[in-house]
Design goal:
By secondary structure, the protein is mainly α. It is built from 11 helices and no strands. Helix 9 runs antiparallel to helix 10 and helix 9 runs parallel beside helix 11.
């Protein structure tokens, strides 16, 4: 299981058996998350490798899996949870050590991946799907509160999908699906957003279509839901987009009642 996916990436310079083998075994349910972390934290083959290099390799592989294999997201989230339990680890990476209890460098590498995928979304069906999948994964991680990743990124994703004009049908399909994933996996947290809690974020930015006040509000939530209903009715929306958007608006209704 997943052998072909990992074999197809053996040529990637960043991939080493130190990370690939235990991650593949975890995804195939042949080892536990606890056992996987014990193996994944081992230093790589290069003795001079620094902690930042080790972490970059690890998180890059995790993010690649998240982008292309969405069914693994619950396993990956639990893996991050297990990393945070590794307070006993005192391994050397070059001259460095890593405090695994803080999921170090996750957020830095997440932002690099996020920005790259965002820039390439809509360029091809494959790149669009990666963005959608990564959005779903990000929403799960943010909701689980395992890193510094905040659900305010869901606010940004929804805003940037539903409050802009003149999007191409392909880009609208992509962004609407990404917004839907944030709603499905982090909608309750987004709905409970208090603007005073995220005042350090740029949530006051004006957009083309939202004419209300800055930040989050129940009125803005209702506007998003209306926009999603319109996306569902557009001729240019794919059946996959319509189904996902419909699921998201149903989730919004349930969140309002809860």
């Amino acid at each position: 299981m997943y052998e072909e996916w990992f074999e197809a990436r053996e040529h990637e310079q960043y991939i080493e058996a130190t990370e690939a083998d235990p991650l593949q075994a975890l995804l195939s349910w042949t080892i536990s998350a606890e056992e996987a972390t014990k193996r994944l934290i081992l230093p790589g083959s290069t003795k001079s490798e620094t902690a930042s290099q080790k972490l970059w390799r690890l998180w890059t592989l995790v993010f690649d899996v998240a982008e292309e294999l969405p069914e693994t997201h619950p396993i990956l989230v639990n893996l991050i949870r297990e990393f945070r339990k590794r307070a006993d680890v005192r391994l050397k990476y070059g001259s460095d050590t890593i405090d695994w209890t803080k999921a170090p460098n996750f957020d830095q590498n997440w932002r690099d991946t996020h920005d790259s995928l965002q820039a390439w979304r809509g360029k091809s069906p494959e790149e669009s799907q990666k963005w959608i999948n990564f959005s779903a994964f990000s929403a799960r991680v943010a909701t689980a509160k395992l890193t510094e990743l905040d659900t305010v990124w869901g606010f940004f994703a929804i805003r940037d999908a539903l409050e802009v004009e003149d999007q191409s049908p392909q880009l609208l399909n992509t962004d609407a699906c990404a917004a839907a994933q944030w709603i499905l996996h982090a909608g309750k947290a987004i709905y409970q957003t208090k603007n005073t809690d995220v005042s350090y974020w740029d949530i006051g930015q004006k957009t083309a279509l939202w004419k209300g006040g800055p930040g989050f509000s129940s009125q803005r939530w209702a506007f998003w839901k209306e926009r999603l209903h319109r996306v569902e009715q557009l001729k240019g929306s794919s059946e996959e987009t319509k189904a996902l958007v419909r699921k998201a608006t149903n989730a919004m209704d349930a969140i309002e009642i809860d």
